Fold each of these.
Amino acid sequence: MYKIEFKDFFTYSFSLDCVIFGFQNGKIHVLLIKRAMEPFKNKWAIPGDLVYPDEDLAAAANRILVELTNLSMVDLHQAETFGNPNRHPQGRVITSAYMALIRIADFKATPASWAEEVKWQAIDELQELAFDHNAIIQSTYELLKKKMRTEPICFDLLPERFTLNELQCLYEFVYTTTFDKANFRKKLKHIPLIKQTEKQANVKHRPAKLFSFDSQLFQSLITQSEYQFKL
Amino acid sequence: MYKIEFKDFFTYSFSLDCVIFGFQNGKIHVLLIKRAMEPFKNKWAIPGDLVYPDEDLAAAANRILVELTNLSMVDLHQAETFGNPNRHPQGRVITSAYMALIRIADFKATPASWAEEVKWQAIDELQELAFDHNAIIQSTYELLKKKMRTEPICFDLLPERFTLNELQCLYEFVYTTTFDKANFRKKLKHIPLIKQTEKQANVKHRPAKLFSFDSQLFQSLITQSEYQFKL
DNA sequence: GCAAAAGTGTTTGGATTACACCCATGC
DNA sequence: GCATGGGTGTAATCCAAACACTTTTGC
């Protein structure tokens, strides 16, 4: 019935690749590691590795990220799966991308295992990476852009307390456009933000008020009404 | 470095499962097959099978669908990937869902290979299926619902020529709500539709005008302006 | 004429846009 | 005072919801 024997279907491998986004200096960045191992030794890549045969995908994504970069407690979500038969030089390896958005300043990524170095690279300044990792990042970034319109994931990228201008700059970078300040703030009227008492410090202009996202209120809004986040 | 030998990572298998949606009798339906093969022999399932080790994913999804149901030339798109270690009783099989939307009347699904029967089942009347196929359908249906808001995929489900009421009924079923007829049609003002000269026939009330989707105009709209489909 | 569904117009209130203006801080 | 960004108000316009109304067909 099959063109090959049933047992010969069990000759794949399966990996996960973690696309970790952060926001700094006005740009979305991606976490990269330098491979200390063949194939693509000394090339930059996104952190990823093979999944153990008895391991669940979500758990494996977390393990792999910890092992290579010491980033733990990161909220990973599945993105696209890549299965070109030639994408891995050592055999048939299908890979699923997992994505996370983190506050760069709140985490300390350090190289471990076969990761020799770790760095944050601006999404618009990526060099050529190992495997098909450029395509993986591209596809996952498209997903990020889509999600940012309808889900409050922007707050995972900004510091816990942020200014409204920082929020606007993030959206302007992602959508490569500019917004009218007054109108952008009117849209924020519908979004549950907590105004902090403190203000920005050490700026040579009027200090901005700081805000934080009210995720509790957000949760009750979406469960109790047909509230829809939109920006 | 690894807890197992490198070669022991090549003990997985990988499958694809096709979630084919259609629309009839006012309801979204899913194409199911009856398995003539262990495991889950005689159980209903979505069409799916193992991917050959040298086969590309998109091509494999099409091949599998043809082999089991004789449906060819179907436009399949990747959805979620499922990798619970215990989801398949015969080994570690990771699977990616592929989804398609078709006009039921334009295709003739017939069982082949180890598919014993084929049927269209209403999405809200699904029985218990083989493997984790209920979860796969659920997740893929959520994706369909999301996509229908911003992409003109509804026209893949409706007949080539449809009435505006049929379109409205489709959206009302998917969003489990009702719309005001006049207001729904105002929203359609922005969507490139071609008014046909013929009308509905054999109805015992005023016959409705028939429309078709102008995909050419749609293509030029999205490339030339920043047009966004929305319904 | 009547039932049934097709098809359209009007009003109203809320959101979006463009744009102008004032405010607080460092130097 | 002035440069720099923070922060807000207004008017015009567009859009969406609610609702009422007219039209065309079969019987």
Amino acid sequence: MAAELDKTDFKILKLLQENGRITNLLLSQEIGLSPAPTLERVRKLEMSGYIKSYHALVDEEKLGLGIKTFIQVQLDFHKNNTIQIFLDEVNQIKEVTECHHVTGQADFLLKVYVNDIKSYERLIMDKISKISVVKTFQTMMIMSTTKKEPIVPLEY
Amino acid sequence: MAAELDKTDFKILKLLQENGRITNLLLSQEIGLSPAPTLERVRKLEMSGYIKSYHALVDEEKLGLGIKTFIQVQLDFHKNNTIQIFLDEVNQIKEVTECHHVTGQADFLLKVYVNDIKSYERLIMDKISKISVVKTFQTMMIMSTTKKEPIVPLEY
DNA sequence: AACTTTTTTAGAATAAAATTTGGTAATTAA
DNA sequence: TTAATTACCAAATTTTATTCTAAAAAAGTT
């Protein structure tokens, strides 16, 4: 397998990011190849891990997930496996959809989806603040999201 | 069009979030219906906007996007259309893949992808800090991401 | 409770797309 | 230059999506 991707591969990645359900036929026409080698390239991109997976994007608000927040978490590093303890706990909370280890005042940035304020309170009271290594946390409620590209900016 | 979704619809949403390229045949087997009504339900979910779109998820690191950050931005509200000015500028920056209007000390939280530190510096110097209404900003570099569900937590 | 209307479904037929196959041109390595 | 590898296309085959029809189920009405 060639290590490098060529322009055609980048085009494929761009198109599949934009429309994950484009047919192989259409895709082949867009990139200027016939269906067979197009499919072969897509399979290679999947096998080699450049394409990790495919997902439907749903409308969260329509589904009643009214509250979206980011939570900045600061940890208490008394124990030497503080981070692992935190991650083990956080990974079990289904409302937490993202968990990033970051630089700056906070140690972690979490993204959280809940139905309403009551659910948010329960999440904070019963789950986040119960994690032993959590020192402090600050909530950023998302009032609106004006940009959310499901697409990563690629060259070419 | 019925306003409410039933259990079968939620199952479909869950499965399509997990695998956006599942065939209609497989999907129908998973939810226990025949292909025809399954497809009809999927189309309804698409038409009514519960499903917004489909996307391939790519491996950012393999593609050379080595730097991912969140930037907290505080605005200077001297003008009365401060927010609109900010949004207009930010929407033109392709490295900014997310833009959230949030509560707390910061006004906006941005997610940014760049190739390397040099690119990051250019982004900051030439773009972010050039926006007239930006008062201050703070960077959180993402060192690692331990959880990133492309899936929204649904009931049922 | 019987009837009507509406909705949902399965199954068959058709259309479209994916996938495989075989062979050829182009590129790379020896 | 030759051999080997790779990438490609065109056509055949298989699989899947889609449409259509009619039956069943559910909901509402008299």
Amino acid sequence: MDRLASIKSFVRTVETGSFSAVARELQTTQPTISKQIAALEDYLDVQLLTRSTRKLKLTEAGEQFYSHCQAILDTVDAAEASVGKRQQPSGLLRINCPITFGQRIIIPRLKAFLAQYPQIEVDLMLSDRIINLVEDGVDLAIRIGNNSDQSLIAQPIGTTRVNTMAAASYLEEHGEPQSPQELADHNCITYTQLAKPNEWNYQSKSNDPCVVKVNGNLKVDSSVAICQAVLSGLGIALAPTWLCCDDISQGDVKLLFPDYKPNLLPIYAVYRRGRFQPAKITCFIEYLAAEFKLDPWLADESLLPR
Amino acid sequence: MDRLASIKSFVRTVETGSFSAVARELQTTQPTISKQIAALEDYLDVQLLTRSTRKLKLTEAGEQFYSHCQAILDTVDAAEASVGKRQQPSGLLRINCPITFGQRIIIPRLKAFLAQYPQIEVDLMLSDRIINLVEDGVDLAIRIGNNSDQSLIAQPIGTTRVNTMAAASYLEEHGEPQSPQELADHNCITYTQLAKPNEWNYQSKSNDPCVVKVNGNLKVDSSVAICQAVLSGLGIALAPTWLCCDDISQGDVKLLFPDYKPNLLPIYAVYRRGRFQPAKITCFIEYLAAEFKLDPWLADESLLPR
DNA sequence: TATAATTCATTCCAAATCAGAATGAATCGG
DNA sequence: CCGATTCATTCTGATTTGGAATGAATTATA
């Protein structure tokens, strides 16, 4: 029996609560995991998990053992990373990020990254739902806006600017509002995921915050849809500039209210705390941070030309 | 490949400097160790050892890796010890101690110990030479007198009393000296392992230290021989009382100079520092310490009836 | 200097192990 | 009550493993 492999399987089993899930994650089959853990129990001469046909539960001994396991895997990782070829980042890198951000920002940058680090493989998991890094076995998540989970480290790597925007075609047809207050006379596309989708906040460059109530005939719950809707000229939206950055550059979409500050949201690279940091993770974060610094749509505000 | 097994083999290889030695220690064959380490190198993609047909040498990477390995094994040991049946002491316990001490003191006590801990196996290695615990893969050594190696922990578990003694038959034939000074007229058996075999130190109960020069027609380099020589009535010897304790009790051997304090030497249990302490080691030390406390020949001076 | 002994690498073979497919039983959700 | 999912078990084929044998190199010994 390979105790290390068993321990790894055990750890992931505890974290996912399922042999099958671990099997999928480790690219093997459920009987393999089942037998590995049985062998580990046999070796330790103690039961680690109580199994019902559908649920797993840690025994007291299992809890005891689990509390040591992360340390074992970390120590081994550190030892292996300290020598040879493994100093070169390698392995499978599981990334999670919001769907549209992945499509627009991450995927176009993956090719160069993978070319730079030929020994890394990426498994990109797109979801707008906030996932649990531990349960889903994700190495790294990209999150926009503040993060609450204290068991995670959130490293800022860029800034999202949220602006009011509309298609040039829409503005031609309906006229361009000159101040947020005029939005009341326009069709505004609202994002139902927000706490108050119909209240848009503004702050003029002279520092007067104000809230504007908006309305419109289109509410959506995905940023993909916002983008599509704006492009189709369906109305005015408040959205991250990177969502339509190409169209803005080409003049198809126009940013409104240049005299108002954009809302700024930090972009974070989020990863597990207290864990040995594989090189594959840190080098991807560094790559992204460098990329974002060069991209005027994502760079930190302070670095932008005024 | 079982990485943990390979790491263990690697660690022992570094410490012994030989595949064959490790193979003997781990009860396997040399090709097995050779292949394990080759597999580990293959896995890490780096050479750990440079091999000539007869010598092994750590590479830089090997040194790097080795510096992490003890931590790995310790973490794993701690994890395994924290659960289940393994809390009960078990496994192979390698003990080293001086030859006569082993024969007279340790072996007679092993039976009860092994009966108390049926899952422990003992490998007792007797040698008067001071061995290297690490190199020889010894868990625990019993040493008499002070220990110098700072990488080892020496825990006092008893006291050796060194007394002047002779067989009753010898005393009948040659008369019994009444003070150390009279030893000049007797045949004294000297122990050549000491720095000054012919100088015996005495301290009367009124605290006057003195040195006596002795001579005789028998010099020996082993404590077994001293014991035999005394019993055969060959002469007077300065020796640990436990060496002939049965004969002393039976009156065949007599302790001289009751008005002088015996020289006291501490008996230490010596084990490796900074390492996770397997239960098998600590329980043997505790067992011995308890046994010695009950044995008037070995108990600590302060506990003895005056 | 020659011989014996020890060391490590390699090869080969038998035995053990392991991974995966198939199957079955239990449970959960609808 | 049915379909889907979960875990355990069994079986089989493939892989891996461990040990004996061998050979080359080196050291110790005579």
